[in-house]
Amino acid sequence: MTDRRDPLEDARAALRARQGPGARYDAAAAPAVPLQWARLGRAYFSRKLNELADADLDAPSARPGWSRRRLVAASALQARAFAQAITLAAGKVPDEIADTDEAALDLAETLPVRALRHLASHADVHLDVVWRDLTDGQWDLAVAGLPGAGLVRDTAVLRAQALWTGAVDLANGGRLRDAPAALRDSLAHGGEGARVRLSP
Description:
Blueprint: H1 7-19, H2 32-50, H3 68-89, H4 102-108, H5 113-132, H6 154-169, H7 181-188, H8 191-197
Helix pairs in contact: 2-5, 2-6, 3-4, 3-5, 3-6, 6-8
């Protein structure tokens, strides 16, 4: 008889056992695979970013007309925009609603490098916390103002696509073949759209 156990679910169960009572986890109805892609993408993007010296961020990215600075700023503002939109969809009012438009991107691009790196890291952590705190039903709420996302659950795969393509566009050795195979398939059917969506 073939073992039909889900390796991802086994890993989640093992993590819960290690962390014990009091830890918070994704809701059962959360899109586990896209969230895994996004979290792997976040780690991959962060690794490629950390490999760059501060001065390297002023160099062009692989995205025409964009510096690496602008790419990092756009990734951070996308995470911020997603977190704010999901929070509003869930019926909560964010402590602060920050701008994530083109003017905000122009400004974020000029931040000192240390502040820009911190913005990228903090925005990703914030989005992950927002995802983790959603209930089963909130994953299927309509979300407004995010191109390509109709429901909250759509944000996971959109973020994953943006992070993996963004890591490649940093142009320091990132490769799409390092991404999960199923995510590569989704990028092949709309990869250019994933790059556009990195800009909030």
